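Supplementary material to the annual report.
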Amino acid sequence: DTEVTQTPKHLVMGMTNKKSLKCEQHMGHRAMYWYKQKAKKPPELMFVYSYEKLSINESVPSRFSPECPNSSLLNLHLHALQPEDSALYLCASSQDGRGGNSPLHFGNGTRLTVT
Amino acid sequence: AQKVTQAQTEISVVEKEDVTLDCVYETRDTTYYLFWYKQPPSGELVFLIRRNSFDEQNEISGRYSWNFQKSTSSFNFTITASQVVDSAVYFCALRPLSGNTPLVFGKGTRLSVIA
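Predicted assembly:
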């Protein structure tokens, strides 16, 4: 079983909807990440939080809004998405942040479909 | 520039065959870390191994073994006596100490093990 929990597992939303993806870890990790993965492609980094502060935003459109309420939780708020945003969204955590050597531990992902 | 190349897009083997997945990387950092992840159809990225740039010892874990050769910038992964449960996409990844990206992924190799 993964130690990074993501909810929901599947989400279908319209282009005018507002929804949120949630991620939780209880390993005491200090860095958390959002990745987007399209079919048959590697994961692409979206955001990195280190010690609850946003440290990396890979030029992600503002219709994706991350939030880190505390060191164990990471949310991704979605609003006015486009069909091309349909993908698997993966959350990950690691013991250290940028420049460290600890592996990233990934959740099962949320499979998002935008209609 | 940091780059990971997995030249094999898809591999099919018959159960009990040995299979090697190739990974070649590029980095100007003298200290870096290499990882292998497995992504089964369920979607989760499962961490398999981490290797730092100063440790060229090969590693064996059950049916899995890894061959790190700094001289050729390769970090290959061999599965011995493959099983159907090994069917997945395998990603090699590089974690440089410099730059913004916590993990640079290769494009992945899809392994199908046929009974």
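Chain B touches chain A at residues 33, 35, 37, 42-47, 50, 52, 91, 95, 97-98, 100-103, 105-108, 110 (CB under 8 Å).
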